[in-house]
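quick one, 157 residues, struct below
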Amino acid sequence: MNTQAAAANTPRAPIASPVSALSPANTDDAGKLLLRVSVGFLVLLHGVFKLSAGVGFIGGMLAKAGLPSGLAYLVFVGEIVAPLLMMAGLFTRAAAGVVVINMIVALGLVHMADLFALTKQGGWALELQGLYLFGALTVVLLGAGRFSVGGKNGRWN
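---
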């Protein structure tokens, strides 16, 4: 009986609940991973399309704006190289910054007429481009997190 009474008075470690496992400290890096992979993948799909279709139409728009049409090839940096780096978590902030610049140029060249337009359903006409732009800007501000090639405080992140 004495052993049972002693066991009843012994302090026990609290049982971890599933809710406490999902604390913000545990999910920040997972959220950063999800954000940079999803934004990077979706922008990458646009770059893959341009690999097969070419960038002639972008060159034409640049020439119309008084810029060298050869700059159109930079779209491969902004829509293929930078998204791949974002997804891997390598040079993440710089890569996301390139995506931000790419989206600003795309808005300026292609979408200025729709900047203040709404769709029939009441949404912003440029919501997809806005999500790419602000998603990449968020990655610039947050960085890659620990689930990345560069690591949380990695030299290459």
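The chain has a mean pLDDT of 88.
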